[in-house]
Amino acid sequence: MGKAKEKAADLNELKQEVKMDEHIIPLEELAARYNSNIETVGFVAFLKLQNLFYKKSLYMDNGEYS
Asked: Per its UniProt entry, which superkingdom is the organism in (predicted)?
């Protein structure tokens, strides 16, 4: 495959949608996925994360934009 075709293939791969489920999974699973412990994370940081994922869930359903 030529360099131009390789570059086009790489670009198309980068354009693929990112699948996200962080906004719909339980917090315990989220903490396990990122090797974290929600009991030892600062309370303010926990609330900020919770708020961030809540806001995402308002705009997304099953990982896709509504």
From this structure: Eukaryota
State whether residue 64 is helix, strand or coil.
strand
Q: What is the CA radius of gyration of the chain?
A: 17
- The domain limits of the chain are 18-65
Instruction: Note the pTM of the prediction, 2 decimals.
Output: 0.40
Residue 21's CB is within 10 A of a number of other CB atoms, namely: 12
Tell me the one-letter amino acid at 46: F
Nearest-angstrom CA–CA distance, 60 and 23: 8
Whether 23 shows a pLDDT value over 60: the answer reads yes
Distance CA 47, CA 16 (A): 31
